[in-house]
Amino acid sequence: MNICVFLSAADLDDRYTRPAREFAELLGKGGHTLVWGGSDSGLMKVVADGVQEAGGRLVGVSVDFLAASIRPNADEMVIAKDLGERKALLLEKSDAVVIMVGGTGTLDEATEILELKKHGRTTKPVVLLNTAGFYDGLKEQFRRMEEEGFLPVPLTDLVFFAEDGVGALAYLEESAGVQ
Q1: Handedness of CA 33, 39, 42, 45 (dihedral sign)
Q2: CA-to-CA distance for 96 and 21, rounded, in angstroms?
Q3: pLDDT of 67 over the 90 cut
Q4: pLDDT tens-place string over residues 13-29
Q5: This prediction's pTM
Q6: 78 backbone dihedrals φ, ψ, rounded to 5°
Q7: What angle (nearest 5°) sits at the alpha carbon of residue 120, between those of residues 117 and 125?
Q8: Could you tell me if 47 and 7 are in contact, meaning their C-beta atoms sit under 8 angstroms apart?
Q9: Which of 2, 95, 130, 136 is most deeply packed, by most CB within 10 A?
């Protein structure tokens, strides 16, 4: 399965890097392909290292202005002209999406895939990996949106909230019919 992971390229502490590394190793050992922003820095590097070292493939999609930080040994690397094209290519090349910890770029990517799902433009499974409770506030906001009628479909049809990588991958594989 080609799994797109939206996440930060920042250098983060162990409460985020350790679970990210563990999730990456599960992806690689499961024979999955990581589709990610192509960066060779921060948390993106941690995940790419873990997937590659565990036997998985790497498909990166970067943009012109970030080309200096791309991973040199990815199995495939595409350079998009802008962030909009990058998001479209990331989704095009993937079968499922995992949203890990990140900043405004990650949040932008997350809301775009959820908006596409809301309007029936994609049926790809989406997991929000809530490492160390990072997305507790967002989870609560989504629940409020649902309760107050802002979501035309049930929240459970848009996103699955996982507290760890094992739960995230199990949900994705079940959604894809992987035994």
Answers
A1: positive
A2: 19
A3: no
A4: 999 999 999 999 999 99
A5: 0.95
A6: -115, 140
A7: 40
A8: yes
A9: 130
Q: Assign 99 to helix, strand or coil.
A: strand
CA distance 171 to 106: 21
What's the rounded Cα separation, in Å, for the pair 60 and 170?
A: 23
Length of the chain measured in residues: 179
Within 10 angstroms of residue 100's Cβ, the number of other Cβ atoms is 28
DSSP string, 155-179: HHHH-EEESSHHHHHHHHHHHHT--
In degrees, rounded to 5, the angle at the alpha carbon of residue 23 between the alpha carbons of residues 20 and 26 is 150
Q: Are 80 and 86 in contact (CB under 8 A)?
A: yes
Q: How far is it between the farthest Cα atoms of the chain?
A: 47
- Judge whether 125 and 175 are in contact, CB under 8 Å: yes
Taking the CA atoms of residue 168, residue 171, residue 173 and residue 174 in that order, the dihedral angle to the nearest 10 degrees is 170
Beta strand pairing status for 126-129 and 57-63?
unpaired
Both tokens assigned to 166: 């094992």
